[in-house]
Amino acid sequence: MSVDKNKLFSNLKYDLPSGLVVYLVALPLCLGIALASTGRSDLLFSGIIAGIVGGIVVGALSGSALGVAGPAAGLVVIVLNALDTLGSFEAFLLAVVMAGILQVLAGLLKAGVIGYYFPSAVIKGMLAAIGITLILKEIPHAFGYDADFMGDEAFNQKDGQNTITELYNAVRYSSTGAIIISAISLVLLILFDKPFMKRMQLFRFIPGALFVVLLGVLLNLFFGAFMPEWTLKNDHLVQLPVAGSVNEFFGFFKSPDFSAITNTNVYTVAVTLAIVASLETLLSVEATDKLDPFKRSTPTNRELVAQGIGNITSGLLGGLPVTQVIVRSSANIDSGGRTRMSTIFHGTILLLSAMFIPWYLNFIPLASLAAILLMVGYKLSKVSLYTGMYKLGKEQFIPFIITIVAILSTDLLKGIGIGMVVAIYFILSKNSRHSYHYVKETHRDGDVIRLILSEEVTFLNKGSISATLDNLPDGCTVIIDGSRSIDIDYDVLEIIQEFRRHAAPLRNIAVETRGIGETEAVAMH
């Protein structure tokens, strides 16, 4: 089965319900990340603007069928520090616009090719770690302890707490109403995945996420009427800014301070945002493509251009910077999305709901939304993923596990960096072992050892070949056969020539080279 991604409207029966689920996931994340990034309740709408732009603008321009863009938790610390450095939100918006311009240029210069060099073990480790992080971070919200913002991914939090202490606090300060709502929501979401539920006409078109959100609202209203001590209020509910008039609504939008163009700190922030947002996007693109049931490939250069235009638009309207984000993208995939219409639809609902029904949205308990995110986390970190990686051997499993541990104990980008270092070590180790074939023959006149070089011998093989030559037995004959090689790097040729001229005579080793012609020999002088 395949999907023609150019026929966007032929899959609306899949994309519209999926877009609705992504919207329900995105709404609290946009608000939570905005509050964490700015520390100001009057700038909450900046997260909604970024979500709208990520859905409509980036969704329309992107080549990713299922990727969803919006404000990212990975940029929270950068945004906070930038606001302190620049002194105003409007100057920061200028940096967002400039970051977008840099991303567009990067895409046009084909810098998206970087995305193809992330090892598969690291990407899968990232997915598993995000799944575990979601579970650990959403348990407090499911218990009714909402001190930390929804969408936080870092181990250490701004309030001095961390992922582990938050679990303790969740049990200590739990809310009975929240536990009931989240428990019922989880059970229903599990049932919605069962085949017998999908055979029922009513539940064939209603997403499970929408059903549990509506039920959560009704349960909380019931608690308010009959069990006031269980009622969830204020911080335990969605808190979307509500405008009293049309003018007040448009007042939520801000404009960049173009007079800050002379401030050199703006350029520093713009470059930082462009680099980090692009890396997060490329990582998410790789992860989303791996989760895509139709195994489509996203053009990474086009994605950088789309994200850049999205950041230019978001900055001009008063929004936070956007990146492609894996949590919303995986929710899109789990909900059955087929094309980027689901992304565009989620952005459209964000816009319309913010304009016309913000008051009603503020009845939604965070406990209901936590249950949805707990299910997303579980699906990202299933046991089958771990057993599958274990079967691939230590060269895949060790970088996979270390990436998970590193992300859980630090944050996404630091964890990915640590995982990359470990994965590259195994790649280099494997590469060095396969640079040549070692054959030893024993004759009356002494040992004859053949080193048959592989087709491509690069500087990465320099260490292993040098060590092999150093460990040859004295008095042997060695035949270094490069006749099968298409290319032998200068560094390797230099090692062979130095060994033949200097080390071998001192150890009474006879050296014969084959397929290493005069051109290479001249190049070694």
Tell me what you see in this structure.
With 525 residues, the chain is α/β, with parallel strands linked by helices. The protein has 3 domains: 8-151 and 158-380, no CATH class; 382-433, no CATH class; 434-523, Transcription Regulator spoIIAA (2-Layer Sandwich), CATH 3.30.750.24. It is built from 22 helices and 8 strands. It has helices at 12-38, 45-61, 76-86, 89-108, 120-142, 163-172, 176-192, 195-198, 208-226, 246-250, 264-291, 300-317, 326-334, 341-356, 358-361, 366-380, 383-391, 394-409, 412-433, 462-470, 490-506, 518-523; strands at 68-70, 323-325, 436-443, 446-453, 456-457, 477-481, 487-488, 510-514. The strands form 3 sheets. A 4-stranded mixed sheet has the order 3-4-6-8, covered by helices on one side. The termini are far apart. Mean pLDDT is 91; it is low at 518-525.
